[in-house]
Amino acid sequence: MTNTNMARAQLEPGESAIIEFNDVNKWYGDFHVLKNINFSIKKGERIVVCGPSGSGKSTMTRCINRLEEHQKGSILVDGIEMNNNLKNIEAIRKDVGMVFQHFNLFPHLTILENLTLAPIWVRKMPKKEAEEMAMHYLERVKIANQALKYPGQLSGGQQQRVAIARGLCMQPRIMLFDEPTSALDPEMIKEVLDTMVQLAEEGMTMVCVTHEMGFAKTVADRVVFMDAGEIVEANEPHEFFDNPQHDRTQMFLSQILNH
Amino acid sequence: MTNTNMARAQLEPGESAIIEFNDVNKWYGDFHVLKNINFSIKKGERIVVCGPSGSGKSTMTRCINRLEEHQKGSILVDGIEMNNNLKNIEAIRKDVGMVFQHFNLFPHLTILENLTLAPIWVRKMPKKEAEEMAMHYLERVKIANQALKYPGQLSGGQQQRVAIARGLCMQPRIMLFDEPTSALDPEMIKEVLDTMVQLAEEGMTMVCVTHEMGFAKTVADRVVFMDAGEIVEANEPHEFFDNPQHDRTQMFLSQILNH
Amino acid sequence: MAIEFKPSPSLPPPSTAVGPVAWVRQNLFSSPLNVFLTLFSIYIIYLLVPPIIEWGIINATWEGASKAECTAGGACWAFINVYFEQFMYGLYPSEETWRINLAVILIVLLIGMFAIKAINKLFLSLTILLVYPVVAYFLFAGGVFGLEVVETSRWGGLFLTVLLGVVGIAASFPLGALLALGRRSNMPVAKSVSLVFIETIRAVPLITILFMASVMIPLFLPEGLNFNKLLRVLIGITLFSSAYMAEVIRGGLQAIPKGQYEAADAMGLTYWQSMVLVILPQALKLVIPGIVNSFISLFKDTTLVYIVGMFDFLGRIQAANHDTNWLGTTVEGYAFAALVYWIFCFGMSRYSMALERKLDTGHKRN
Amino acid sequence: GTLDDVKAKGFVQCGVSQGVPGFSNADDKGNWTGIDVDACRAVAAAIFGDAQKVKFTPLSAKERFTALQSGEIDILSRNTTWTYTRDVSLGLDFTATNFYDGQGFMVRKDLGVESAMDLDGATVCTEQGTTTELNMADFFRKHNMSYVPVVVQKADEAVSAYDSGRCDVYTTDKSGLAAHRTKLKNPSNNIILPETISKEPLGPVVRHGDNQWKDLVTWVMYVQVNAEEMGITSKNVAKIKADAKDPGIRRLLGAEGNMGQDLGLNADWAYNVIAEVGNYGEEFERNLGKDTALNLPRAINNLWNNGGIMYAPPVR
Amino acid sequence: MSNIKNTPSNKSFLNDAGNRSLIFQIVLLAVVVFVGYYLFSNLQANLENRGISTGFSFLNEPAGFPILIHLVSYTESSTYGRAFLVALINTFVISLLGIILATIIGVVMGLARLSKNWLVARLATVYIETMRNIPLLLQMFFWYFAVLAALPVPRNSYEFADFLLNKRGIYSPNPIAQDGFGLVIVGFIVSIALAIGLIVWAKKRQTRTGLWFPAYWSSLGIILAVTFLFFAAAGFPLEFDLPQKSRFNVTGGMVLPPEFVAVLVALSTYTGAFIAEIVRAGILSVNWGQTEAARSLGLRDSMTQRLIVLPQALRVIIPPLTSQYLNLAKNSSLGAAIAYPELVAVIMGTTLNQTGQAIETIGLCMLVYGSLSLSISLFMNWYNKKMSLIER
Ligand SMILES: Nc1ncnc2c1ncn2[C@@H]1O[C@H](COP(=O)(O)OP(=O)(O)OP(=O)(O)O)[C@@H](O)[C@H]1O
Ligand SMILES: Nc1ncnc2c1ncn2[C@@H]1O[C@H](COP(=O)(O)OP(=O)(O)OP(=O)(O)O)[C@@H](O)[C@H]1O
Ligand SMILES: [Mg+2]
Ligand SMILES: [Mg+2]
């Protein structure tokens, strides 16, 4: 399958991949949801994952910080192998921030508390320092003035930006986004995408499941297309959009671009 | 008020209206919801009622089969006057079928049972005959293969078509539709409108509250526009759409046609 | 040129639609059946209300030293009057009852302090949950700071009833939370232990559990190790209500969206950190009305301790009914008990409903 | 053993009734009086030299044995009848008898019943979990009479049920009848029928298997009976201890020898019992005698040499 | 291939999630087993030290005590096992009757609370709020002691026809079958068969012609009429033993003792109030649109309720109703407090007292309540499944 060559990062000599999937397989009961995923990302890369519903995009992303367990193959994040070892999992989760479709902010905590929770309890940071850092990231997502409100008092777009700031507060080396804009109104989508573009420009390693093709064209280093649990095609954006190899990809693109 | 002249059906000599509203007034508590409604429909006519939210469209329609009581004026359906007389109400409800926005199918009964319930219990039809008739109408709404399923197992559009078939099973002389498509997805709207158009072509007397202006243009004999509990304007569709008399009507049309 | 549309003025509704006459017609006499029902209801009210008022108020006797002085033919409230202190405090020495009152005032003040913004809520909660019980215990039992020792066998009356209810709920809370977590856990042993415990307790009547607590616990302990009956009954009540509490809390846990668990995991919180910091605070807020309802049932159920020989509020009233001076005041005693229980339970149930409404709108899910 | 536990905790835990005047009854301040209460106080006096070192646990009839078995109480002194089954298979040991009783019936005068033999068809109230329940059954069965049993959970409620007219007859030990009659709305309208249908030796009970404790409780009772026989009362005991020449009395009161040793008590334990609680006769008169509401005659509870059957083994 | 940076320092046995949960579970199991063993060994030692007999052999010994209410034959010389059976039946009977009555009260009060008649709705609310907020035990005491005190002595019984009401209970004539009563039973069976036939026929006819026949009412009529005919033909072979006032009591007739009535009334009025709220919530949970749809099809209000609203409301009603039934069954144990001879009274009361075997008697009671609860909830789960809606 020549067209999945691009699923592996093009590494300079001496450079090593920050995320590496080797022959990863996963089943839900009998259902084979990830099939032989081979895939790697190098530091600073920005990957967009797309594909039809149910194709396993979320599942693959969630394997990276072991919200899901895989059953075969190996996943290495920053050189650490994913297995049942709790220390490893902890170490990786510190390094990987995640932003969910439905934000999943903690409604009983203020914005500031949402952001400082993990730094204080996981990174054992002094409270003051954690708050300063939190305010820094809130400013970066342009929402510092809301710090003392509760999530329920913010709009969806604002909430998602808080969720991004919360991910950043762990000062992760990698950020995962699982359809971060699909629960939002069109005008809020823009707010959030702007924030993400800014992050991308700062050189953060990002894996982003999204169907915002504009975003993909602007910032992605590679676009990965999945279907039925497989990586069908992976390529640089202009190649991917202008010259899709696979008929499945062509069909998919024709649908979402016309929409 | 010249522009509501058209609210009364143009009767041939000797012909009589099948529905007649004479100076009908209705209050909810202190709230004057229908004001001096004068309005009639002749057999086989197809009326579309439109107007802004809260203008009293549903209330007026529901007065026709006395789901609501009016307090002043008189309503005659098929020559029978609406009053507290239970026999009259029963007689009228047998003659008037109704389709609701939210379908209101009976979830504990199969589709077939939904359709045969009234024929068996109200019309005292033999069960077998009722089922045959039900299958006939189910075929007409193109859904006969679902007869033994439960409403919860059907899509919204299918449910609404079942609701129409259920109304038809009483073999009513008049069908009322209260925004039958507004709870549906765009593709399902088409399914349902198709069914309604077909009914209209067969000559059924219909009163339909809807904002589907395409439907109105295609099948309506007259369009009635209501606001603030009054009939503001009533006219034939081409007149109504191309040459609205009232500024209120113009404003309303400009809004929904731009949409 | 378009015609201007001016809505016609709204007219006042006809008198048949609004006003007292219409109201009476619609609500009382709308159909022959309703006329009958209305007349029937009026008849029932006529049968019940005037005699009760006559007995309970008009012909009642409020003061007196024995039943013999109740000659008016109505209720003999003098009985309640004389025994009031015993009903409230049991046999607690009357010169020491200030200690109970003080404890009540203290807790009211402490809870009232939640309204003050400047106070650290966590600190206050910890005070109420950890410090106050100790203070209250020593106030009640005595034996320190020169307070006279008061045997638990002298504790009784409404004091004991409230004590059993409050301690039962408070103590069953942590246990119930553990059981709920256990029942939702994916570890088979933890799950089945919690499940068996919860379902066994819920299957049997409280009275058998009280009976076990009052007579059987000592059989299971080594000889010589034994503790106070009140404590044993409290253990029984706590175990009982913790099973119900577990189910209430489980309901709350189930209502928390899965995303919250995932978000906590993704941040690297451990199981216990995510439970304590993220899940439980949300779940508990959701289950407060459920807890209040459990408290109401428990409060009513504490009357059963009477069957195992403790003189709670109802028990004291029953006992006083046998005072030779006051024979024949059974109905007054029960009426008084019913009134007190009713006020407590009804008040709390209204409170829980109000709370439910408040939390319903206040807790937006996302 | 129990004695060590009692000494360690500093008081005797005594199971009593929930209110039988003359036997064990609390006033509205919670002070206990009665002959069963005095039995416990005497034990406390023997151990601690202080009759107040007792705590009381009121028990219903059906709870009492379990409470004793489980160790919740040290002595059960709750007008409990000594029977074969209870002694042999319930894990109980009966000590001495402090009241010889027998079961009787109480009826309302206006029924016109003179004898228990007229009770055919009557409705009978009694308390649950007592020998009374069984005796009643045996009595009616023996005389081939029918009856309707209403077995109520607590004595007080059984009396209420009788008083409210649920039953024609209330049955329990005769002393209990006398005691409960004082609690009726109109005591004089009720009579106690002459028949005694059972033997009811009542006395303190302890757990089976602790012989030292059983001996202690038994002999505290016997000492009181012996004291009455010897004419020693709480009033004159101090004087007698000082003056007595009789070596038997001197030994008894601890003026010489150390009779308490084997029981694990001080030499003056018997002295303390008599001084603090009194002899048996005093106890009886104080709680049940002529000057009380019960007004019971000594009858068979008199000393053996006064026409009764109170006969205590000698203290030697 | 990139270099795999293994981190051996983290590879410890304890850090493995699977191992951790395994260890935790082993520890938990050990604690449970140990505590169980500790309690059990204490128990054994205590029983031995105190000479308390163990085992269930007492069930075969004569009980010696009387029981007021027994639906199977029981005398003082019956065994404890028999007494247990009697108590068990008493518990079952009171629970079953209580459930039936409470359901009726609950449905009536729940509907009354929804009544359009303001006064009726208010009265029902007062009833519900009063009953729910007063402890059941207190209500039992009230129905027993306070009401008992207000009733007349047997001599002055209230009389209605051959029925008597006094402090000793409610008396009614006791029917005694004479020779030839077998014929009446035959007649009854025949009438039932006829009624079933009628119902089947009516259904068939409806399917054929669409005409309805009031089959249920007429079959009731048939049962009564046919049975009566046979009764007359056999020469009225039934005599009544009428209650007679005698010296103490009332003799003859059938009697419902006050203990039974008080427990039944208290249980059913108390639980009925809870059921009323459940019924109300269930009916309100059915969308108003369903009623409107039914009406617009021309169904009469009574049919709308029967065919549309109630079947859907039941779905919502049944789970909480189940727990109320369970509560009622458990609460019947409070009857012990007012001399109703149910399980707790007879087994944990008298039997425990005569035999001293706390473990066995309390164990028996818990077993019975456990299985009672289990069977009610199994039945309800089955019913619930049957009623639940089929969804996509
Ligand atoms: N917990 C689960 N148990 C069983 N099957 C699951 C589970 N979670 C997901 N699946 C199935 O796995 C497949 C892949 O799911 P996944 O959520 O990864 O898809 P996706 O590509 O993210 O789709 P979408 O665009 O709808 O989010 C789907 O068919 C889904 O039904
Ligand atoms: N049961 C009721 N009690 C009081 N007011 C009511 C009631 N039902 C409807 N109304 C009010 O009567 C007015 C007319 O209602 P109606 O439902 O007939 O409007 P409509 O024209 O159908 O609006 P929509 O397009 O939103 O369905 C509204 O202002 C509504 O709030
Ligand atoms: Mg997804
Ligand atoms: Mg409408």
UniProtKB/TrEMBL annotation, chains A, B:
<dbReference type="InterPro" id="IPR050086">
    <property type="entry name" value="MetN_ABC_transporter-like"/>
</dbReference>
<keyword id="KW-0547">Nucleotide-binding</keyword>
<dbReference type="InterPro" id="IPR003593">
    <property type="entry name" value="AAA+_ATPase"/>
</dbReference>
<dbReference type="InterPro" id="IPR017871">
    <property type="entry name" value="ABC_transporter-like_CS"/>
</dbReference>
<dbReference type="Pfam" id="PF00005">
    <property type="entry name" value="ABC_tran"/>
</dbReference>
<dbReference type="GO" id="GO:0005524">
    <property type="term" value="F:ATP binding"/>
</dbReference>
<dbReference type="InterPro" id="IPR003439">
    <property type="entry name" value="ABC_transporter-like_ATP-bd"/>
</dbReference>
<feature type="domain" description="ABC transporter">
    <location>
        <begin position="19"/>
        <end position="253"/>
    </location>
</feature>
<comment type="similarity">
    <text>Belongs to the ABC transporter superfamily.</text>
</comment>
<keyword id="KW-0067">ATP-binding</keyword>
<protein>
    <submittedName>
        <fullName>Amino acid ABC transporter ATP-binding protein</fullName>
    </submittedName>
</protein>
<dbReference type="InterPro" id="IPR027417">
    <property type="entry name" value="P-loop_NTPase"/>
</dbReference>
<keyword id="KW-0813">Transport</keyword>
<dbReference type="InterPro" id="IPR030679">
    <property type="entry name" value="ABC_ATPase_HisP-typ"/>
</dbReference>
From TrEMBL, chain C:
<comment type="similarity">
    <text>Belongs to the binding-protein-dependent transport system permease family. HisMQ subfamily.</text>
</comment>
<keyword id="KW-0812">Transmembrane</keyword>
<keyword id="KW-1133">Transmembrane helix</keyword>
<dbReference type="InterPro" id="IPR000515">
    <property type="entry name" value="MetI-like"/>
</dbReference>
<feature type="transmembrane region" description="Helical">
    <location>
        <begin position="233"/>
        <end position="253"/>
    </location>
</feature>
<feature type="transmembrane region" description="Helical">
    <location>
        <begin position="274"/>
        <end position="296"/>
    </location>
</feature>
<dbReference type="InterPro" id="IPR010065">
    <property type="entry name" value="AA_ABC_transptr_permease_3TM"/>
</dbReference>
<dbReference type="InterPro" id="IPR043429">
    <property type="entry name" value="ArtM/GltK/GlnP/TcyL/YhdX-like"/>
</dbReference>
<keyword id="KW-0472">Membrane</keyword>
<feature type="transmembrane region" description="Helical">
    <location>
        <begin position="123"/>
        <end position="145"/>
    </location>
</feature>
<keyword id="KW-0813">Transport</keyword>
<feature type="transmembrane region" description="Helical">
    <location>
        <begin position="157"/>
        <end position="182"/>
    </location>
</feature>
<feature type="transmembrane region" description="Helical">
    <location>
        <begin position="203"/>
        <end position="221"/>
    </location>
</feature>
<keyword id="KW-1003">Cell membrane</keyword>
<feature type="transmembrane region" description="Helical">
    <location>
        <begin position="98"/>
        <end position="116"/>
    </location>
</feature>
UniProtKB/TrEMBL annotation, chain E:
<dbReference type="InterPro" id="IPR043429">
    <property type="entry name" value="ArtM/GltK/GlnP/TcyL/YhdX-like"/>
</dbReference>
<feature type="transmembrane region" description="Helical">
    <location>
        <begin position="358"/>
        <end position="383"/>
    </location>
</feature>
<keyword id="KW-1133">Transmembrane helix</keyword>
<protein>
    <submittedName>
        <fullName>Amino acid ABC transporter permease</fullName>
    </submittedName>
</protein>
<dbReference type="InterPro" id="IPR010065">
    <property type="entry name" value="AA_ABC_transptr_permease_3TM"/>
</dbReference>
<feature type="transmembrane region" description="Helical">
    <location>
        <begin position="260"/>
        <end position="279"/>
    </location>
</feature>
<feature type="transmembrane region" description="Helical">
    <location>
        <begin position="133"/>
        <end position="153"/>
    </location>
</feature>
<feature type="transmembrane region" description="Helical">
    <location>
        <begin position="181"/>
        <end position="202"/>
    </location>
</feature>
<comment type="similarity">
    <text>Belongs to the binding-protein-dependent transport system permease family. HisMQ subfamily.</text>
</comment>
<dbReference type="Pfam" id="PF00528">
    <property type="entry name" value="BPD_transp_1"/>
</dbReference>
<feature type="transmembrane region" description="Helical">
    <location>
        <begin position="21"/>
        <end position="40"/>
    </location>
</feature>
<feature type="domain" description="ABC transmembrane type-1">
    <location>
        <begin position="88"/>
        <end position="380"/>
    </location>
</feature>
<feature type="transmembrane region" description="Helical">
    <location>
        <begin position="83"/>
        <end position="112"/>
    </location>
</feature>
<keyword id="KW-0029">Amino-acid transport</keyword>
<dbReference type="InterPro" id="IPR035906">
    <property type="entry name" value="MetI-like_sf"/>
</dbReference>
